[in-house]
């Protein structure tokens, strides 16, 4: 939104510049427009071309996109669940694509001894660890994302939570990208998951 506001202001200044033909003369070039400089002979063309320029610049502003990073968490330690692929994957994305993880906001689990479990009684009733809050936030994340990337590489056991997220994403018609070993060795190589993934 800030970029569009800045663009609109630049175009307004350009229109004012070109509209003042008595001062600058026909064919004057506005210094702020750089490669998109307008070389115009009359005010009608100036306004029309400035609006065309604004449309063209708007088209080059890619909309922000959100990618939800799903995958097994149960059985992993805090470091494995927050680092590894979840830390590296966002670095591969273009600047307008933002990836987020269900482990965000769970730094209080950093000192957890042993693996993360799927039992509600193992965690204090906190904002990000209460079972109802985990379900509500993950559901909302899947509903609001533009795409879901699921990494099943090396999964030693079935991830029930990720399978539920698959179902939500499919119901909301979100594109699902599944990363998994070829062949049948991974327990997630299941016809329902592979059918839902693109």
Description of the structure:
This protein is α/β, with parallel strands linked by helices and 198 residues long. The chain has two domains: 2-60, no CATH class; 65-196, Rossmann fold, CATH 3.40.50. The chain is built from eight helices and four strands. It has helices spanning 2-19, 21-24, 43-60, 78-82, 85-88, 131-144, 160-171, 191-196; strands spanning 65-70, 97-100, 147-151, 176-179. The longest helix has 18 residues, at 2-19. The radius of gyration is 25 Å and the shape is globular.
Question: What are the key terms here?
Answer:
single chain; 198 residues; alpha/beta; Rossmann fold; 4-stranded parallel β-sheet; 8 helices; 4 strands
> What is the overall number of helices?
8
Tell me the overall shape: globular
Helix/strand order: HHHEHHEHEHEH
**Assigned CATH class of the largest domain:** Alpha Beta
Helix content: 40-55%
Largest sheet: 4 strands, parallel
Q: Quick gist of this model?
A:
The chain has 198 residues and is α/β, with parallel strands linked by helices.
What secondary-structure arrangement, pairings included, does this model have?
Layout lengths: L1 H18 L1 H4 L18 H18 L4 E6 L7 H5 L2 H4 L8 E4 L30 H14 L2 E5 L8 H12 L4 E4 L11 H6 L2
Parallel strand pairs: 1-2, 1-3, 3-4
Helix pairs in contact: 1-3
């Amino acid at each position: 939104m800030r970029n569009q506001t800045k663009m609109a202001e630049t175009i307004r200044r350009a229109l004012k510049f070109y509209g003042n033909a008595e001062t600058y003369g026909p064919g004057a070039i506005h210094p702020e427009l750089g490669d998109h400089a307008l070389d115009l002979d009359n005010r009608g063309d100036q306004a029309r071309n400035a609006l065309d320029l604004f449309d063209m610049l708007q088209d080059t502003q890619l909309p922000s996109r959100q990618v939800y990073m799903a995958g097994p968490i149960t059985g992993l330690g805090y470091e494995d669940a927050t680092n590894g692929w979840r830390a590296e994957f966002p670095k591969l994305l273009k600047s307008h694509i933002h990836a987020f993880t269900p482990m965000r906001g769970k730094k209080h689990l950093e000192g957890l001894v042993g693996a993360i479990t799927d039992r509600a009684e193992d965690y204090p009733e906190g904002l990000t660890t209460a079972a109802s809050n985990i379900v509500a936030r993950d559901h909302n994340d899947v509903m609001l994302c533009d795409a879901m990337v699921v990494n099943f590489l090396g999964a030693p056991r079935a991830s029930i939570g990720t399978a539920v997220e698959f179902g939500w994403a499919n119901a909301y018609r979100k594109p699902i990208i599944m990363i998994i070993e070829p062949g049948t060795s991974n327990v997630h190589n299941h016809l329902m998951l592979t059918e839902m993934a693109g």
